[in-house]
């Protein structure tokens, strides 16, 4: 993919995440040019600037956390369209330091106590939010 073509979509990925092989296969099937960039932003202003690569047409699409992107797009009325179907979903995790084992155990008990229908609603909202 070293030769850039105007017909090849330019897709930006976070360099901090190891995407599954299926993501790279789908991008290759699309003849996409992959651009890797750090997605860490220190402020909302930096996050808004982050989306400028779409508006100035340097990038055609970004694969990024859907909830965060949705919040930024709606809160700041950014000219960005979030696709209704997810290209790739990544599970979210919570980590605790070793000295916080009690809080981690409490959170674990609370999370497993959530009824299955509520978990399904949360999952569906996460997948469909835009």
Write down the Rg. 18 Å
Strands, total number = 3
The major pleated sheet works out as: 3 strands, parallel
Strand order of the largest sheet: 2-1-3
Q: What is the helical fraction, as a range of percent?
A: 40-55%
Structural class: mainly alpha
Q: What is the element string, with H for helices and E for strands?
A: EHEHHEHHH
Tell me what portion of residues adopts beta-strand conformation: 5-15%
- Apparent shape: globular
Report the total helices.
6
Overall pLDDT score: 84
Distance between the termini: 31 Å
* Low-pLDDT stretches: 1-5
Could you describe the 3D structure shown?
With 130 residues, this protein is mainly α. The chain contains 6 helices and 3 strands, in the order βαβααβααα. The protein has helices at residues 21-29, 44-50, 52-55, 66-75, 101-112, 116-128, and strands spanning 10-14, 33-37, 61-62. Strands 2-1-3 form a 3-stranded parallel beta sheet, with no helix packed on it. β1, α1 (21-29) and β2 form a beta-alpha-beta unit. The longest helix has 13 residues, at 116-128. The chain is globular. The two termini are 31 Å apart. Residues 1-5 have low confidence and may be disordered.
